[in-house]
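Hello, quick one for you while I still have it in my head. My current little project is about how a certain protein chain folds up. You're getting the sequence in one-letter code plus the fold written as tokens. Would you mind checking whether the tokens look sensible for this chain? Here's the protein in full, and shout if anything looks odd to you:
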Amino acid sequence: MQLLKHSLLVFLGSGVGGMVRLLLNNFITGFAGSGFPWGILTINVLGSTAIGLVAGWFAYRGDAAADMRLFLTTGILGGFTTFSAFSLDATLLYERGQPGLAALYVVASVVLSLLGLAAALWAVRLATP
């Protein structure tokens, strides 16, 4: 029953976060143009800053219910940008005294993600007549 409750909290939060991402990205792109992805850059920075504030508050205050933590971090901020979760994981590795592992995580995440995307585009191009 707890898993169902947590799944619903993440589902609802992700919907809210995703909707805010769409609206903010459209607003910024309409204002700044589409020559550079200013909207997504802004969203990634805002999401990472927000998850830092939320995670810091929970870590130092510790007075938020687990459901609220899940709804805000995995749900809303995860729906807003998964970059925020990536940023938090990398920073936590660094703060735990594992800077080499943090650097490896950052480099591997970026390089492997870009290679995966490029490989997928290449495969689709080959499969498309």
